[in-house]
Write a structure and sequence with these properties.
With 92 residues, the protein is mainly beta. It has one domain: OB fold (Dihydrolipoamide Acetyltransferase, E2P) (Beta Barrel). Helix content is 11%, strand content 42%. The protein is built from 1 helix and 8 strands. The chain has a 4-stranded antiparallel sheet with strand order 1-8-6-3, with no helix packed on it. It has a 4-stranded antiparallel sheet with strand order 5-4-2-7, with no helix packed on it. A hairpin with a 2-residue loop joins strand 4 (34-40) and strand 5. It starts with a strand and ends with a helix.
């Protein structure tokens, strides 16, 4: 399981806000996919996936106030889109 954490923005702000999730729980993501957008002070930050897998759990909703390095989501990096495609091809 890979943890998606907020960046350490403590040098500029004590908190941030989740503006938008681009993915939903259960979605398969690839490395580099945009997961969510957060606002810190006057800036916005796009958080990208660093692993491929299934977005298994989202811990923060849009509009939530978050702290630096807070756990935002988990990616099951042992459950990839390629695995799903292989399973589906077995049934064709």
């Amino acid at each position: 399981m890979y943890e998606v954490n907020a960046p350490d923005f403590s040098d500029t702000s004590e908190s941030g806000t989740v503006l938008k999730w681009f993915k939903e729980e259960g979605d398969f993501v690839e490395k580099g996919d945009e997961l969510l957008e957060i606002e810190v002070g006057d800036s916005t930050i796009i958080i990208e996936s660093k692993k491929a897998g299934r977005l298994s759990t989202i811990f923060t909703e849009e509009g939530a106030i978050i702290e630096p390095e807070e756990l935002l989501a988990e990616i099951d990096d042992e459950d990839t889109l390629e695995d799903l495609e292989e399973i589906e091809s077995d049934y064709e």
